[in-house]
Amino acid sequence: MKIMIYDNAEQVAEHAANIICRTINSKAKTVLGLATGRTPLKTYQKLIKSHKQGSVDFSQVSSFNLDEYLGVKPGSNNSYRFFMNENLFKHINIKLENTAVPCSDSDKVNQTCHQYEQQIKQCGGIDLQLLGLGTNGHIGFNEPSSSFASRTRVVALASSTLLDNSDLLTDQEQTIDKAISMGIATILESKEIVIIALGEAKAQAVVLAIEGALSASCPASCLQMHGNVTWLLDQEASSLLTQKHYYQLSQQLLAC
Ligand code: GLP
Hints:
The structure is a single chain. This protein is of the alpha/beta class. It has a single domain (2-255), classed as Rossmann fold (3-Layer(aba) Sandwich), CATH 3.40.50. It has eight helices and ten strands. The strands form two sheets. The chain has a seven-stranded parallel sheet. Strands 4-8-7 form a three-stranded antiparallel sheet. The model has no long low-confidence stretch (mean pLDDT 95). Bound molecules: 2-amino-2-deoxy-6-O-phosphono-alpha-D-glucopyranose.
């Protein structure tokens, strides 16, 4: 794993956006895996800026989002579809029909999950998956105890996740306790993975995921098994890493 530690969230976003732009510039039909939450917001702002400056073209790019709340009304300001449209898609030249977010507004959710997997395969798989990290070590909405063999499915949300995200939901939506999430095996099939963690609240999950044992108790530890993962961390998120000095030396080598 490449473990890159930067001074602040701004620099992390700069590097994440650079990786994404580089990928798209070397393959116009890149298939992106995208994340929601507070973590990727700055990265999306950088992508929008790069697009406006003419340095990246999304016209042939397609995307798959990691997850969506179950029971969020279509068009709700808190749906992940709305989040993606507002924070990225409507500001760049990606074709909306080439962007996929799991559709939770269906009475056939299991079928939807199966179709999502098929759709990813039909597109040739995800080239670059962007991930955030839950304070409990989740990726997507794969909460602790998620199997490393899991596929896109309906999942229950952990109480810590509900608490972390409660300020992002309206009063009516506070009853939401399930979601559709890409599975861990789905994520691990991506050709490349970039995971961002920012702030002190993520430090414990970061150390368990990078330096802890492979364990369903920390879903992000599964990334140790992937051959092309980059962790992008700010100082606070990396503060508990016991081998931080070694990672920084390795980072210097990568910059040479
Ligand atoms: C959310 C999402 C994840 C996200 C993570 C961290 O609930 N399902 O995809 O990466 O939890 O969220 P945040 O970036 O807001 O800290």
